[in-house]
Amino acid sequence: MSMFTNAHQFSIRGGIYNNVARDQINLYESPQTVSGNSALDILSEFIKDVGAVHDSAQRYPPPKCHPETRKGIQTAILEWIHSQQNGRPVFWIHGPAGVGKSAVAQTIAELAEIRGSLGASFFFSRSHGERGRAEYLFPTIAYQLAVRIGEFNKVVTQTLRKNPGVLRSSLDIQFEELFLNTCGSAMKLGGKWMHQPRVIIIDGLDECTETVFQQHIILLIASVLKDKLPFRFLIFSRPEPQIREAFQAHVPQSLLRQTSLDKDSWDARQDMKRFLESGFFNIRTQARTSHIHFPPLWPGREVIDELIEKACGQFVYATTVLKFVDEEHSHPMEQLSIVLGLKTAARGNSPFKELDVLYHHILFSYPDHNKVTMILGASIHLSSLSGLRRWNNHPCGPTIEVIEALLGLHTGEVLLVLRGMHSVLNIDGNHIQILHASFRDYLCHKSRSGQFYIRDSTFIAHLFLSFSGVKIIVTEPRRMSVLVNDFEPHRDYMPFIISRSSNVLLLSMFIFTPLLNTMLLGFIPLGIISQFLHWSIALRFSFSFLAAINLTEFLNDTMEYISTGLDQTHTGILNASFGNIVKFVVGIAVLFQGKIFIVQHMGYAWIHLGKHAINFRLVLPCRFVITCD
C-alpha cells in the first residue's frame, strides 16, 4: 500500500513516516533527493552564498586587466591552455601583493569562457566569509563542470543522490567523489569534451584561511596528474613559503610551469604607464569633468613617472590612485595633489584606503604583532643610517644576523616570524628588503598603520643602534662580531679618521655618539638658565658650547629634510642661507655688545677651519670659540 495515494505535484525530502491502517503499520523512508533534482539544483543551493566564481555578482565589479596591459602574460597562459602537446598540466603564477594577479586571473577566465576552454574558476578571499573556506572549493568546481559538461552533470547527479552528505565531508572525500571519481566515470561515457583541455583556475590560494588546506589542495591536485585528465590547473598566489614548499614537495618539476608576476617581469613598467595614461585620459574627457580646464596633457610625464616609481609594480597602487583622483564630488587636480603630497588631505580622505586595508590584513595575520613591528623597524632604521655603507647600500638591506643580534633574537627567529610576509618583503638569502615603497610609507605614517607605526628618522635610527649595541656589549659580547663583520662606513664619512681606524673603533663611535648627543641635549636648558641667572662666564660658555654641538646636527638634519622636496637651485639657496645664519646671529650678538672688531675679523679663515670640523659636528662650537676669542 503506498502512502499519499493519488497525490501529485509535490515532493518530500528526508524523514521517516508511519502509515497506520487498522492493524497494519508501514514505515516509509523518504530519500534525501528525489529524481527531479539534478546536481545543478543541489550544488547551486549549497554554494549560493559563496560568490567565488569569476562571473559572480558578489565580486562585481571584478578586477580586470586594461586592454593594453599584461598582453605578454595573457598570451603565454592562453597558449599553454590550448597547446595539445603541453606536458605540464599545472601553471603556478606568483607575485607580491597588489601586482595584479587577480586581474590576470579574471581576464583569463573571461577569455577562456569565450573560447570554450574554461572548466571552472574559484577566487579565494580571506575577508569574504565562505570565499576563504576550502570546503567550498570542490563543490563550486563540480557545479561549474556540471554546467559545461553534460556527461559530468549526469555522473555527479547520481553521486549526490546516493550520498548527499558528501557536501559536508572532508576535503579528501569531496575531491574524490565530486571530482576524481566523477571525471573517471564521465570519461567512460565519452564526448567531445575529452579532446579539448579545459582550465580550472584557482586564484588567491594564499587567501585560503588555513595554511594546511593551502598545501593540501596542491597535494590533491598533484595526486591526479598521472591520470591524464582533460584538465589543466592554473593557480595564482603570493609566493608564500608554505605554497612554494608544497609545489616543490608534491608536483614534479617536469609537470609544473611557473612564472613570477612582479615589477621587473612582463613589461610591467610599460603596462603601468599605459594604465595610468589611459586612466587620467578618461578622467579628463568624461562628462563629469567637462567644465574643468585641465592643463595640456595633464598630469604630465613627470607625474606619471613619479607614480610608476612609487607603485613599484603594484597595479593596486595605480588603481587606488585613479579611484581617488576620480572621486565623484572632488576636484581631480586637488585629489592628485593630495596623492603627490603637495596638499594635506582632510581627515578621513586618505588616498590609500584600499592599500591600507591590504597591508593591515597582511600584518594582522600574525599573532605576535610586536615582534613583527620590531623586526620591520630594525630593517628600516638600519637602512636609513647613511654612514653605514654595507648596510645601507646593499641591494637587499641589512643582514638577518645583524637584526637578530641587535634585537636579541635567537638565530633563525627572524625567518620564522617573517615566514608569511614574502608578498611585501624580499627575503633574499640572508637579507631583508621592503618590496614596495607604499608599504614603507604605510608603516611610517601613524594615522595609517596604527599599532604597526615605525618612526623613520635618523635620530631614532641612531638611538636604536646605540642602545641595542650597548645591550649586546653588556649581555652578549660574542655577538658583536656579527656587527663588526657587516659594518663598513662611507669613505667620505670622517675620512682622515677612517684611514687610521679599525671597523671596531668606527662601530664603537657609531654606537656611542648618539648616546653622547642625547646627553648633550641636557646642556640646552642649562645654557639658557645660566644666562638668566647670570652664572659665571666660564659656565655659560661651557654649557653653550656643549649645547651647540648637538644643535649643529639638528640644523643639518633639518636642512636635509626640507631640501628633499626642492630642486637643485632652491636647495643651494637653502644651504647657503642656513650656512650663514650662524655667522649672522653671532655678528648681531657681538654688535649689541659693542665689539665691532670681532665682526671685522669674521672672515674666511675660521670658515675654512669649520668646513673640516663639520665631520665632528663642531661647526657651531668652533665659530662660537673664535667669535668669543
TrEMBL record:
<feature type="transmembrane region" description="Helical">
    <location>
        <begin position="532"/>
        <end position="552"/>
    </location>
</feature>
<dbReference type="InterPro" id="IPR027417">
    <property type="entry name" value="P-loop_NTPase"/>
</dbReference>
<keyword id="KW-0677">Repeat</keyword>
<feature type="transmembrane region" description="Helical">
    <location>
        <begin position="504"/>
        <end position="525"/>
    </location>
</feature>
<feature type="domain" description="Nephrocystin 3-like N-terminal">
    <location>
        <begin position="77"/>
        <end position="238"/>
    </location>
</feature>
<protein>
    <recommendedName>
        <fullName>Nephrocystin 3-like N-terminal domain-containing protein</fullName>
    </recommendedName>
</protein>
<dbReference type="InterPro" id="IPR056884">
    <property type="entry name" value="NPHP3-like_N"/>
</dbReference>
<keyword id="KW-1133">Transmembrane helix</keyword>
<keyword id="KW-0472">Membrane</keyword>
<dbReference type="Pfam" id="PF24883">
    <property type="entry name" value="NPHP3_N"/>
</dbReference>
<feature type="transmembrane region" description="Helical">
    <location>
        <begin position="572"/>
        <end position="592"/>
    </location>
</feature>
<keyword id="KW-0812">Transmembrane</keyword>
